[in-house]
């Protein structure tokens, strides 16, 4: 922070990444992945059977909602130079809602190590126990692998995060071999993919604001327990981190999985999309306050 490019689009949401397709802006990795799967089915990585979809969803919940990533973030080494920068630690405290002093990190480390080691053991002794290459026994990695691996891959690449006397390729060989395979597959995929264009922030903003909308209108689920109506003024914000940054706009889409706000940027309508899980939706004018 600050993020002037997002501010120019009227986006208060502060986490990354965000994705824009036309004038539709998607906030949170979960909805980004879901939209990519829906909009580009020829490259979809999601499971096809009900059983595999359940495993895929379980791994998403396990990493995000069940706290694996939260524990992983507590393993950031106190030797990181950024922890000597008071601006950085203040930003992290505001973002996470917890202290980020070196002393606090060191105090929480044993519990975090125990939780992450349990995660490594779970993968080693269940999903990967039979020697499969990928989580769903496929020929190539799928979304289930992505949902499961990202926290553990990040920690493995963060020098000093994992205590190697407790968590190593000797103790969890199947997990570490899986991580290595995934990174090899990722390198191949990147080499084969088109090279992305890079834009400066102001150029990206102009391209987004001059584009048409890309997503279909979702409509409003009138049976939704929040009882909100089309066009109601609401605010949406995450309830796990970055909670102080609220996006406000007219409600134009509400389903079991998604909420869509119409906002304005430089006099142009922009639509912000959020997942329902992990976010609060609250009326800000009329009808009292409704929240999830």
From TrEMBL:
Indicate the secretion signal residues: none
Q: Where is the GST C-terminal domain?
A: 51-213
Q: Which Pfam families match?
A: DUF7962
Q: SUPFAM superfamilies recorded for this chain?
A: GST C-terminal domain-like (SSF47616)
Could you tell me which InterPro entries the record lists for this protein?
DUF7962, Glutathione-S-Trfase_C-like, Glutathione-S-Trfase_C_sf
What this protein is called in its record is GST C-terminal domain-containing protein
């Amino acid at each position: 922070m600050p993020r002037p490019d997002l501010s120019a689009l009227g986006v208060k949401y502060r986490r990354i990444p965000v994705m824009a397709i036309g004038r539709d802006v998607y906030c949170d990795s979960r909805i980004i992945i879901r939209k990519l799967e829906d909009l580009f089915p020829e490259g979809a990585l999601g499971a096809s059977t009900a059983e595999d979809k359940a495993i895929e969803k379980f791994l998403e919940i396990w990493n995000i909602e069940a706290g694996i990533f939260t524990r992983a973030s507590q393993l950031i080494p106190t030797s990181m130079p950024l922890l000597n920068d008071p601006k950085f630690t203040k930003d992290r405290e505001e973002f996470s809602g917890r202290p980020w002093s070196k002393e606090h990190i060191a105090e929480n480390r044993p519990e975090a190590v125990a939780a992450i080691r349990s995660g490594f053991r779970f993968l080693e002794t269940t999903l990967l126990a039979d020697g499969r290459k990928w989580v769903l026994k496929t020929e190539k990695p799928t979304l289930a692998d992505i949902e499961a691996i990202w926290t553990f891959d990040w920690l493995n690449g963060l020098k000093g995060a994992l205590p190697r006397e407790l968590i190593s390729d000797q103790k969890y060989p199947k997990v570490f071999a899986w991580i290595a395979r995934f990174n090899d597959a990722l390198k191949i995929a990147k080499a084969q993919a088109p090279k992305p264009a890079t834009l400066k922030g102001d150029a990206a903003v102009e391209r987004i604001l001059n584009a048409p909308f890309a997503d279909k209108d979702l409509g409003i689920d009138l049976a939704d327990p929040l009882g909100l109506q089309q066009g109601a003024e609401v605010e949406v914000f995450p309830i796990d981190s970055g909670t102080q940054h609220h996006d406000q706009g007219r409600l134009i889409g509400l389903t079991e999985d998604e909420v869509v706000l119409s906002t304005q940027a430089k006099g142009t309508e922009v639509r912000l999309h959020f997942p329902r899980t992990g976010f609060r939706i609250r009326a800000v004018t009329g009808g009292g306050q409704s929240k999830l």
